[in-house]
Structures are given as structure tokens and as C-alpha cells.
Write a structure and sequence with these properties.
The structure is a single chain. The chain is about 30% helix and about 20% strand. Strands 2-3-4-6 form a 4-stranded antiparallel sheet. The chain has a two-stranded antiparallel sheet with strand order 1-5. With about 130 residues, the chain is α+β, with helices and mostly antiparallel strands. The chain is built from 4 helices and 6 strands, in the order ββββαααββα. The chain has a domain of about 90 residues: Outer Surface Protein A, domain 3 (Alpha-Beta Complex), CATH 3.90.930.60.
Length: about 130
Amino acid sequence: MSSDLDTAFALRPDVVITVLEEGALLLDLESKYFYSVNSTGWSIVQRFEAGSSLRAVTEQSRDWGAPDGDLESVRLFVDVLRKDRLVEASGAIGESQIAPPSSWIRPVIEKHKDPLQRVMTSAFDPSVPLAE
């Protein structure tokens, strides 16, 4: 999936982000799935808020202290963003000032097992899921 290193991608507008102490939680309003990302993953996701390419993310990761051995995990992280359509093709790569992660760790993205409609329950009867 990542053969086009210079193709620009941007976070889809219907992906909602909640910043957490050690990363972020992404909610895809289309699929209703949640994704957890660690602190390095959150820094990478921020690159896509303004538009970025795999090449730009890789170069930024090196600047943040990623050893060459971790660059494959960066590629795999971006591949998940693309495969699950959290990012979409964009016309340009934007400039953004992003705070680097406090220390480099391999980026991790984890898709939660159940979509939102299965997680939420009725306030009146917790055993009955809410309708979509």
C-alpha cells in the first residue's frame, strides 16, 4: 500500500480525536470504530491533520529519533490509517508545527473490537444496546 511515498493524505473530516495522556483515541464516525494510538502514533496522526505523505512522516520520525529499524513500524502504522480509510488522498502536503513525542517509541494503532453501537447501551436498560 505504501509504494507511493509522495502521495499526500489527510485525516478525513469525520474522524474525531480525543487526546489522552499517553496518546489519543480516534473515532471514525462512518464505521463507528474506535482506534487507540500511543504518543508517537498521535504525533504521526497530527501530521495528517494538515496533509502529509509517507516520505514526510518517515523523515519526521527520523528527526524525532526513530532508528532505521523502526521505520517499518511507521510504514505499517500509515498503512492501517490508509486501509481503514482514516485518511484520504489530499491535494497537498500542509505545513504544521507538531510537538514531538516525549521520547521515541514505535507507533502503535489498535482498532477496538466492537464499533460504537455495540459499546453504548441504553441509559434505561443497560442490557439493551442503543439503536444506531
